[in-house]
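Weekly puzzle thread! Below is a chain. First person to post its structure in token form gets bragging rights.
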Amino acid sequence: MALSKTHRIIWLDEHIGQDGEYRSFKRMFCTTLDPNSQYGNELDILICALNANAVPFIFVDTIEKAIHEIKINNDKQIIFISSGSLGQRIIPSISSTYPNVYSFYLFCALMTNYVEFGLDYLGCLKIFVSELDLLVRLVRDISREMIEQGKRHLIENDPEGALNYFERSRTLELTVNEKDKLNSPFLNHLRLLNGYGDEIGLIQQAENLKEQQDQEREEQQPEPLLPNYDSQGQIQGLIYQNIDLPVAEQILQEEEPELMGQNPDLPVAEQVSLWKQKEEMDQNSDLPIVEEVLLIEQ
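Winning reply:
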């Protein structure tokens, strides 16, 4: 869930916690439930899509339980959903006491009963006459928040974080357009995400940035450096893979690894010198030893 570390949705309704009521809502918490399954109705599928891609739900059936959940989630940004009657009782207290509850959604049978109440909370309260309309709006509001979060990651050169938000937002938008059968598909967010006309979509922008960063990382990887040899097999240029080692130690490690550590009391440079002397003597094995030494001295 893209916003699971920072957000919660608390849904207060007196029937949710009672046995035999809202079974479809409770069923969504089963790990085997597929949000796209044919077994769920529109409400189930929208809740499952939000729960899987965006924000976890917490269902409560009393005001006391709602306040308790708000308190224990005081480090989260909370979206609060309620029936009209319970919301009218609890929203004033929540609004004045818990600033982390930043958005309220109310569903009721008759909107005119709550118009006057809603005037006091114009900036944070939305009222709906059906739960489906409420969920459709909630999905799109959260999708918009996720797009904004993704844009921040894009500005911060974090394309993977941006893609996480953008792709989950797209999933929400496709789901809600499919289930909101009474209205024409809302395409504004999808056009932002997928691109429209000559505009490059946010998802493509994030993918382009990720590809660019991957290429830059590959280019910054040092090329394997191997020793150069002349036609007689002698080392040229002292170019070696272990660039953090002293050159003398690189020579010894590259050419005669079995000699490393045989003379631990000698500096590495002297070990290399001994090895080179041995190598040159081996190359002139047909000469008497005195002549070999003379050749080395020369």
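Puzzle host: Confirmed. Bonus trivia for everyone else. Strands lie at 7-12, 57-60, 77-83, 101-107, 125-128, 195-196, 199-200, 228-229, 235-236.
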